[in-house]
Amino acid sequence: MLANSLVELDRNHLIHPVASWRGHEQAGMRLLTHGQGAWVRDGEGRELIDGFAGLWCVNAGYGQPSVVEAATRQMTELCYATGYFGLGSEPAVRLAARLAEAAPGDLDHVYFTLGGSDAVDSTIRFVRYYWHARGLPQKQHFISVEQGYHGSSTAGAGLTALSAFHEGFGVPYDWQHRIPTHDLYRNPVGDDPQAVIEASRSALMAKVEDLGGAEHVAAFYVEPIQGSGGILVPPAGWMAAMRELCAELDILFIADEVITAFGRTGPLFACADEGIVPDFITTAKGLTSGYVPMGAVFMSDHVYQVIADGAGQAAVGHGQTYSAHPVSAAVGLAVLDLYQGGLLENGRIMGERLQAGLASLSDHPLVGDVRGRGMLAAIELVTDKKTKARIPAAAQPATRIFDRAWDQGLVLRAFGWGVLGYAPPLCCTTDDIDQIVARTKKVLDLTLDDPDIRAALR
Ligand code: PLP
């Protein structure tokens, strides 16, 4: 009963992110009430394994007592401290120092935000300020990658390369550009890793040329693994090659690790997988494991020094009331303790099991591609393995597959073009992972029985 009245209130008053508003009015909300470890409970008392860690953010798992205690203690002692007027709080300083220590290379300076979108937005502003301070204000253009996602702030949504974030919103702006994705499964140059890397390098060089040369280009913004674009993993060496090219061209290289950081692919930062040191890294999500909102911009020392010298005694006019919020920072420290105290290691082991388990479904008639790294994975469905024909829109993959999984007690992400996404909490047990795989098999079998799929199957 309570659930029913909440669904009604939700329908009338709560606007949901990235939703069809009319569709949501019809379908109504599914209520979540509890979470423990890798499991959540819905409004009807059903227990589900959360194969997507909320929105790929609850990396440490639900209900961790040390995180709850840290937040409670901090709220009791000091619920808020501004960073303005030269003030600060102990957890914010300690978290910045520990993160700087753990981050690759000279990424020694941390600016805290409220989430990923404003981490991207802050970075765009810092990049502009940097080039201005270097006396090169004409370096204005940003380049990102098709299928990339960089949040939905006014500026970030234009770097995002997914049409739903553009249409009707007046973005991208004329300083925002894209090169094709490195997608290994559907790349026009084929699936040879070297050829894909070469194609991306050439595309970036050509784009820079088109824009009048590197003296007009500010930055290249990229995810180590494209998340919201369908969990697209670049070939090994792709990130390093692009990083090297940007350094040659004197273009800032920015890694958007909002999804990939904090153990999602194994280490604390995915850039560590390829030994890369970007000029900036943007993060959020796993930083506080979804317990409270927080994001972070990591800035390399050479960028920081230019901005600091450029401003001199003047204020660098960028800030938010809740930057470096002490409760979020206390949560961040508690979560970091968990990661470094064994969760990263567990995530590595479970990640291997997840990848192997999902790969074992490759022979299923609907499975075209299985890909991923660590605790981040995808299955791409097709109706014809040879031609890689996508499953038809009439089969409504986003809703029907999501619903089937839910009925099996599994939360996953179902992308509208027939991709199943996985990002379970790092605290999963072997049984949790095996359940995710077994329930996925059931979902695939049920999907095979869908008349709209059957009609398209070859
Ligand atoms: N950047 C990337 C790579 C993301 O995946 C996301 C969110 O999924 C964002 C930025 C935006 O983060 P938020 O939703 O916290 O604003």
Automatic annotation (TrEMBL):
Species of provenance: Paracoccus onchidii
PROSITE patterns assigned: AA_TRANSFER_CLASS_3
Name of the protein: Aminotransferase class III-fold pyridoxal phosphate-dependent enzyme
Keyword terms of this UniProt record: Aminotransferase, Pyridoxal phosphate, Transferase
Family to which the UniProt record says this protein belongs: Belongs to the class-III pyridoxal-phosphate-dependent aminotransferase family.
Molecular function as annotated in GO: transaminase activity
A Pfam family of this chain: Aminotran_3
NCBIfam families reported in the protein's UniProt record: PRK05965.1
Known cofactor(s): pyridoxal 5'-phosphate
PANTHER family tied to this protein: AMINOTRANSFERASE, AMINOTRANSFERASE CLASS-III
